[in-house]
User: Fold this.
Amino acid sequence: MKNMMKLALIAAMAAALAVSSTAFAEGEKIGVSMPTKDLQRWNQDGANMEAELQAAGFEVDLQYASNDVQTQLSQVENMIAAGADVLVIAAIEGSSLGEALDMAAENEIPVIAYDRLLMESDAVSYYATFDNYMVGTVQGTYIVEALDLENAEGPFNLEVTAGDPGDNNAKYFYQGAIDVLQPYIDAGKLVIPSGQLAFEEVATPTWATETAQTRAENILSSNYADGTNVDVWLCSNDSTALGVENALDANYSGTYPIITGQDCDIQNTKNMIAGKQAMSVFKDTRTLASQVVKMVGQIVNGEEVDVNDTETYNNNAIVVPSYLCEPVFADVNNYKELLIDSGYYTEDQLQ
Ligand code: BGC
Assistant:
């Protein structure tokens, strides 16, 4: 009997402890600002963040800004006015949230830049992302290997489609890939029939599939209508790769090019299975969400915040302490393991 009472007491104490540790997060409100519902990945990011923060006992204010900078600005300001304790922001345009960030600083609200760096502000406390430069080097290295550029003479025809100039990540993706490919461009093994290689010439505002498609259609009709083959099309991510794939479907009858991407969006994964997209880069949004939730918890508890890079991400005001998750190469040979076995997608979603 005595033992039973002891056990009951221990159980009650353990329960009290469990309650008090979740209660610590209770009442803490986390504002999560996402750019758009139009692209698949942000829906996943938002859903993962919301679920994980709630599971950790936080209250969550999750907002999507329809890719409209003004909307995002007022959503973040509203989060502050509503008493957010920490802000997590994936910016539409890195430099356009200055007013809201000033307001956060005045109210001493820590800000985590989520996936995309917030620029020109010293009110950014931390940055959590995938290693953006590495995304580009993975794409570039894939092209080098797929075309055997070390040994092959070429020349191979290359076209390039990059991301949104307003997104700090876009230049990292581009530069990572171009740094790998440049020696082969210099050696004449890779040539660019459109002549468009500078970032400004190949960028895609808001990462829009339609914009990438229109540009690809123009390139195809001006440079490839005579039956010239395009051998490889470097695309920085899946939404732009999809535009290029749509353009090729309707306007091109040559040998299908090697196309790169990033995100493993459902449609692009289907295209990978169908042989239309050669590879993608998998950035498991669950990994990033878990890391950010961990950082939020550390901030709220006054603990040291987990970062692994304190040098790379200068936002033109400060170098923002960052945590970089590792992106993973994906293609038709490993997508099942990466995406289905891990529970990221069901088999049905990819039918
Ligand atoms: C993200 C990419 C994404 C792109 C378009 C970038 O900031 O890092 O994963 O493809 O935005 O949404």
In short: The chain has two domains: 2-130+284-325, 132-282. The chain has twelve helices and twelve strands. The first strand starts at residue 29 and ends at 34. The first helix runs from residue 2 to 25.
